[in-house]
Amino acid sequence: MVSTAPPPVDPGRTTRPRPGISTEDLRAPSRLATLWTALARPRTLVGVATAIVIGYLALVPLFYLLWGAFSDETGFSVDGFARAYGDPRIGSLIGNSALFAIGSAGLAMVVGTGLAYFNVRTDVPFKGLFFAASIIPLIIPGILYTIAWIFLASPQIGLINAVLEPVFGPGTFNVFSIWGMIWVEGLHMSPIVFLFMVAAFRSTDPSLEESALMSGASRVQTFVRVTLPLVRPALVAAGLIMIVRALESFEVPALLGLQNGTYVFTSRIYQVIKSYPTDFPVAGALACGLLLVAALGIFISNRVGRNGSGTISGKGFRPRPMDLGRWKPVVGVGILLYFALTVVAPLVVLLYTSLLPYYQRPSGEAFRSMSLENYTKVFDQPLVLNALKNSLVLGVAAATIVMAITAVAAWVVVRSGLPGRQLLDHVAFAPLAIPGLVLGLGIAFVYLRSPLPIYGTLLILLIGYCTRYLPYGMRYAVSGIHTISTELEESAEVSGASWWSVFRRVLIPLLAPALLAGWVYIFVVSFRELSSSILLYSPGHEVLSILIFELYANARFTELSALGVVMVLVLVVLVTFAYRVGARVGLRSD
Amino acid sequence: MSMLTIEHLVKSYGGDTERAKRAGRARQKAGSAAAGSSAAAASSGRQQAAARVFAVQDVSFEVGEGELFTLLGPSGCGKTTTLRSVAGLERPDSGRIVVGDRPLFASDGSVTHNVPANQRGLGMVFQSYAIWPHMTVFDNVAFPLKVRKRAQRPGKREISERVAKVLETMELGHLADRQATKLSGGQQQRLALARAIIIEPPLMLLDEPLSNLDAKLRETLRYELKRLQRELGITSIYVTHDQIEALALSTTIAVMQDGKVLQQGKPRAVYQNPATRFVAEFIGTSNFLPGTVRHRADGLVDVETSSCRVRLESDVRVPIGDSVVVSIRPENLTISREATGGHANQWQGTVVNRAFLGDAVDHIVQVGQGTLRVRGNPSVSLEPGTQVFLGAEPHQVALVPVD
């Protein structure tokens, strides 16, 4: 049964077409040949190429950011850090940043968690409104949301102040303050907390609460002593993510804080870049500090989220809503008020302003003067059409490139078994921890120094978007691959298909829904990107969000509103489409 | 002529942490087997590092043309790893795999010749069937022909003729244009088979193809599979953990445990003469009686156990006074109220328990110090406490080495 002869080698697979060669004869050439065939295999080549592209996108800006921060004309230097953190205003900068981040995260957490609890656990009315509100961060970009709140609560022109003036006197609310910033940022983020906590509450066994009620605890006691501790890992993770998001936020601090000198990190970096002569090392040093805090927050929240996933019972149960009883109308009114504040008011004020010849308080005269003139005026400008075109082109290109790269990268990470694939996974996720403004700065540093003529073109914006949304594409592609059984690819391989055939004919068609969902999502978020674009665009290469930012700076409020309404309409169409597509693979909100 | 030869196949996991973990999980499922395996691994001459986990340890066997060869064993025993090594989906550490006269894998540990899975030209049926949901029934079957190199690819018409023929054989002809996901479990199984045989492979590999079906359908398809395999005359390797399936289908069974083949032979031989206690326990149930050899003559051995004295037929040359284990299948024991003459083995005992199983009745009978399980016709059912006589033919009693 057992042959003692040396094993013959298949003639078809080696360089020498002579049958019956023993492995001894082949020792030297075989090793080289094995190494060569292993390297030259298309799967290895494609994997390595993808790793290089991802490494370039994710790591090079970080490297140049550090270089920019730690160098001046003479070479290595920490003067930038000394100037940035030795500034007497640094104390108030850090204090403002912390207050803004923690305050708006806190507001978002309280509102979002409360809404999620009512939605999942009680028979609260208007449940449809919750999910309409939850897509607000996707369809109203931060820049428009902030401007809408200026229209509502500016001490000079705010409509709410105008309404309250007869009772409380002029300027009841002042949106141009740290509290105004916290209010706007917190409201804008609250739907994200809502979605996050809905998932957490849904995966918690309600019988744990019911047994607390049976033990004699009141509803409030049950909520505080049982419900909240059960979802604590989700709460901590969400809280950290919100703090990081608020720290990264550019629109709110730039529009509401710069005017009265309330600086946070992002607005200060922007101000340093825009002042002449630009002190790049200081901007780099501030960006490094922000990056460190953001990366730390993301890291801890990932750890917490992972540890917490196992603590909630996974048993099958059907959540039964709790009867709110006589509190039902009270909660119902609260929900309507929230919806009016976060969704209706900002949209209505934008629409109202877009129809006026000049910004004014509502009056009979104002309503009589309404027309669509702003819309025709806006679209008569070549600049606007160009910006719309740029936004669309960049959205399509970034989404396509990211999904193409991540489809291969996800294969490398999940399936290939190539060495270093875990590292590739981590590198591809790194941009998640880089604030948009910091990324913009890093990329600007790269192409200011690079001889390639990329700075001052659309291409640099495309590189920025691709880097920024790489982690999102990765998330869609990786979770998509995980849902596909390995046997589907193995059976194709056994059937004789080459690696490329398996990839093209089996994996990609099966992965298509996930890739499409990721594509639409990236298209949506690229279409409204502002915080990295603001440091990368050049005149003639504006995108829509930049144009709105500029129109605001020039106080052209009515045209801005018309453009904003158009932008929201485009986003509504895109997001509706995204939800249709994403229904199959589970679309996650930004 | 042998269609498949496997020599000294070894496959271990380790170094690559992820795979080691996966293998570790498989081991945990195997439960207590893990301890035995690591001890065995340590004694293996091919062991590379203490932390390595051996999935397959020095497995060798040959499969003749037209055979249906079954690898049988509990999960984690290495049967699937062996099959996947033949398919080219796993890369063994060392050993040799030859199909017909074509070596697919040969390695002495440093120099390796390895034909990639997609150039081996074998057919495989996966546990989940791995039917591509984005293709029609026709496209699923045509795939292995369509992905061939241009020079070897048949023309469009030939492809559709061959696919139609295979689908007809599998009674799927009328479903050719249907989306593959819209098939019943049995139809999916036949589709997976059709796809595996479309290229007329020298060898077909089946990885627990019936385990996803409900019990009734599994039985029907078992006979269907046997008929098809015989009609097509295709040499097959079949992996299963279901002993009934293995006994019903196979021409040869190889029982595996901890990465090693414990016994190989025809189903009846393996069942009647298990080589080890594990084999006897894994295939069917058995009564094990430890005892001492008292007498041996003319191929008959007398063993003294704590329950009774047993006479059995065996060619094994065991010295008198040796400790052995005797195995008697419950269905090979007869039970009656009265003593009947002329039996080589007849023991008196008391019924202590019984269980009605539908097609049989099990009695637990106290004999001497121990108890024996007796399976009999459902018409014979005796109250606990009844005095009975048990009998067994010497050729139906097996001698099992002490593990």
Task: Explain this structure.
The complex is a heterodimer of chains A (590) and B (403). Chain A has 590 residues and is mostly helical. Chain A contains 27 helices and two strands. Chain A has a two-stranded antiparallel sheet with strand order 1-2. In chain A, helix 2 packs across helix 19 and helix 9 (178-202) runs antiparallel to helix 13 (251-257). The longest helix of chain A has 35 residues, at 382-416. Chain B is an alpha+beta fold and 403 residues long. Chain B is elongated and about 75 Å long. Chain B is built from ten helices and 21 strands. Chain B has a six-stranded mixed beta sheet, sandwiched between helices. A five-stranded antiparallel beta sheet of chain B has the order 2-1-4-5-6. Among the domains of chain B are: 1-65 and 72-118 and 242-284, P-loop containing nucleotide triphosphate hydrolases (Rossmann fold, 3-Layer(aba) Sandwich), CATH 3.40.50.300; 285-400, OB fold (Dihydrolipoamide Acetyltransferase, E2P).
CATH superfamily of the largest domain in chain A: MetI-like
Output the structural class of chain B: alpha+beta
The CATH topology of the domain at 1-65 and 72-118 and 242-284 in chain B comes to: Rossmann fold
Instruction: Indicate the mean pLDDT of chain A.
Output: 84
| Count of spatially separate domains of chain A | 2
Largest interface: A-B, 37 and 45 residues
CATH class of the domain at 1-65 and 72-118 and 242-284 in chain B: Alpha Beta
- Give the number of DSSP strands of chain A: 2
Helix count, DSSP H or I runs of 4 or more residues of chain A: 27
The 3D shape of chain A can be described as globular
The profile of the biggest β sheet of chain B is: 6 strands, mixed
Coarse morphology of chain B: elongated
Biggest sheet: strand arrangement of chain B: 7-8-9-3-10-11
Strand content of chain B: 25-35%
Please trace the helix and strand order of chain A, writing H or E for each element. Answer: HHEEHHHHHHHHHHHHHHHHHHHHHHHHH
Mean pLDDT of chain B: 85
**CATH architecture annotation of the domain at 1-65 and 72-118 and 242-284 in chain B:** 3-Layer(aba) Sandwich
Strand content of chain A: under 5%
